[in-house]
Every structure is written in C-alpha cells, then in structure tokens.
Amino acid sequence: MTMQVQPVTLVTEEDLLNEAMECPVDRELDTRPLAQERAFAFWQKDIPEDYWHLTAAEMKERIARAREALGRRCVVLGHHYQREDIIQFADIRGDSFKLAQWAAQQPEAEFIVFCGVHFMAEAADILSQPHQKVVLPNMAAGCSMADMADPEDVYGCWDELQEAGIGGVLPVTYMNSAASLKAFCGRHDGIVCTSSNAKRVFEWAFQRAEKVLFFPDQHLGRNTALKLGIPLEEMAVWDYTLPYGSLGGNTVEQLRRARVILWRGHCSVHMRFSVQQIEEARRKYPDVKVIVHPECRMEVVQAADMDGSTEFIAKTIAEAPPGSKWAVGTEINLVSRLARENPDKLVFCLDPVVCPCSTMYRIHPAYLCWVLDELARGRVVNQVKVDEETAHYARLALERMLAVP
Ligand code: SF4
Fold it and tell me: In this structure, are residues 184 and 216 in contact, taking their beta carbons and an 8 Å threshold?
C-alpha cells in the first residue's frame, strides 16, 4: 500500500508556550547528594567523582552558573514526571512530544538538554534541526515499557504474521518506543501515536488497513480500541516472551479474527492503579472525580470518570472549579505538583503507596549539573544521536501522525 504523506502542520511556538506550564519554580533542592541515592538511583558510572558528593546548595549554584554561561545556546526541557528538583531548572515542561517540538522551534538553542528518558531524547533528536545536539543527563534513564518492545522481537512478530498469511496489518507505535521502531513504522506505511491522539491515529490506521499491530503498551491499545467500539473478542495479545514460531501465543484463527494485535507491554507505574483504589477514594469522598492515564488497565479506565494524557489531566484539574476533589491515576511527581499548583482543590494520588517512575528518577540534579558544566566548558557529553536513515523513516511516521486531523 502506498500513501501520500500530507504536508506537516506543526503546532506554533505560541500554542506550545500557552500549553506549557511556566518554569522554573524557585525553591531549595531537597534531593540528597548522588552518593546517598546510590541504593536506588541508577548511576551512569562515568560521572566524575566530585559530582557524587555535591550538596543541594552546591548543585543549585553550579547549575545556575553553567546556565548563565550557556545563555540562549542551551534549553533545558523537563518532562512532567521529573522530580521537582529538576523541574525547577527547566525552561519548559510538558509531555515528550510537545517538549521535542518546542525545542526544535528554538533555533538559537544549540544544545537541548532533555530531562526525561531515552526514547524522548531520541524523538527530540529526530525532530530537531541539524545544528542542534540533544543531551540526556543520565544515559541509564530508559523506560521499562519501551524496553519491552525489543526491535528484533517486533521484526520477528511482523515476519511471523506474514508467514502465517495474516495480511492487511498496519504497525502503530506509541511514542514510548525506540527510534528504530518508529522507523519500522515509517517503512511499513505505519504511524506513531501519543496518548493524546491515539484514538484519531487508530481511526486513520483503520481507513488504510484491516488490522493494527500496536506496540509496546497493550493497555493504551486496548483502551483506545474499546473507545472505537472494537470488542475484546477482536483483539489478540502478542506475548513477546514466547519463542519465534509461537505466533505470540495465538492461533492463526485468533489472529485472522483480530482487528487489533496488542504487544504485551505495560507501564509499571500505571499498572499500580486498581479499581479497589477508585472505590476507596469514592468511599472517602463521595463527590470525588477520578481521572487516570490510559496506560492504566482497562478495568481502571472504565471505572474512572475520565481518562487522558498528562496534558489532559493537568488542564482538566487546572480548569476545574474551586473546592472540587480529584483522585488521580498517574505518576506521583506530576500529581504532587498538581496538588501544589491547585491549592483551592483537593488533588491526591489514587495509590496510597506513592511510587515515582524509577527511570525518570534517574535524572538526579548532579547529572544535570555535570552535563551543563561540560557544555559550558565546550564539551558535549551524553549526546543522543539517531543515525540518518533511522531518523528519516522515524520522521516519516511522526509526520504522518502530525498530519492526522
Ligand atoms: S511512567 Fe511508565 S511509560 Fe513513562 S517513562 Fe516511566 S516506565 Fe516509561
């Protein structure tokens, strides 16, 4: 199948600035020195030893000094799930896609320091301009969900489907995936989606093919397919842990019947939310509104009052009437920030045992300090660079997404 790629309509810088929340919030760091987080913070081992023991005040002072030296040559982006001690240094915060787009529209910024996880820095590199360099402060900051879709496993799945005679399949990857998988979609007439536009992207896909192969998050895929009226009987789950030749644990008949083939990936943060937590929140506050991210399980999304992306959650709560109550099913750093920024409302996390995204947490201020110091000294460390060919096809899949009305 051949498709024409529509001209790309990028959101304007003004749109992005309006939607992005203002940064920074000037406050004291409470993060402990890196050496003291050793037990649970994953280290990029080659960070020089003098950064291990910097106190909060020292890190803050050095980051400010490096930023001043770099001036407009450097922008710092902060994902919503970053800890407050990082967010306060960000020029802008938002979800991964908006941040990448915003950075690409700052031509004077030679360096884009992405405080998020690896796939986000890759996407920023793909969308950035040739003179811009993207830096990830800690190269150990990956995403466990993205890692569940190993590109070789996805290529194997694709081959198995072809060998089994399952045709008319269009690959759709979630933004939370490796650049090589975005490129795979670009090469096979496929597309990328975010949690904001998944429904529209699925509709686009079904105008062009009978079936969608969606990776890596089975929950976003299932929740989106249900919104389109596709019953569970027309969905198959591809178990990537099974050996080649197992059809991901399905029969040929199941795959023929399936309209959506869901990769068996998940987000460990959003898997923590449960229907019991929703019932408990409603018992405690009968007028509470429950809002969750669509990476949560189907039962949770269906029991909630509403679901949507991080941007949707932030906007909905910001616009809610004073005195309203919100039980939120998403990462704790964002929920805590929303609670602080909406003091006229009650905002709390559905999960009483708070747990941040452990990979986002790997961006400790010491790493930010180190990469900024190096940039100020004229050295680029931790650059994330996607090779030309991969970037070309990945961009194709991203451009198709941007052209979806
Ligand atoms: S919250 Fe989930 S999907 Fe997002 S970076 Fe963390 S593990 Fe990945």
Answer: no
Q: Give the model confidence (pLDDT) of 162-218 as tens digits.
A: 999 999 999 999 999 999 999 999 999 999 999 999 999 999 999 999 999 999 999
The CB density around residue 21, as the number of other CB atoms within 10 Å, is 18
Describe the crossing of helices 218-227 and 198-206 by its angle, rounded to 10 degrees. 70
Rounded to an integer, what is the distance from CA 257 to the centroid of its chain?
Answer: 31
Pocket of ligand 1 (CB under 6 A): 81, 117, 143-145, 176, 267-269, 331, 357, 359-360
Kindly list the structural domains of the chain, giving each domain's residue range(s) and its CATH number in brackets, ordered by start: 13-142+359-389 (3.40.50.10800), 146-267 (3.40.50), 270-349 (3.40.50.10800)
Is residue 18 scored above 50 in pLDDT?
no
Cis peptide bond prior to 216, omega within 30° of 0: yes
Amino acid letter, 327: A
How far, in Å, is the centroid of ligand 1 from the Cα of 148? 11
For residues 345-372, give the mean pLDDT. 91
Going from the Cα of 145 to the center of ligand 1, the distance in angstroms, rounded, reads 6
* Strand (E) or helix (H) holding 166: none
Phi-psi bin for 351: left (phi > 0), alpha (psi -120 to 50), beta? Answer: beta
CA pair distance 237, 251, nearest whole angstrom: 11
| Mean pLDDT along residues 383-390 | 98
Amino acid letter, 192: V
Q: Can you give the pTM of this predicted structure?
A: 0.90
Q: Is 70 exceeded by the pLDDT of residue 10?
A: no
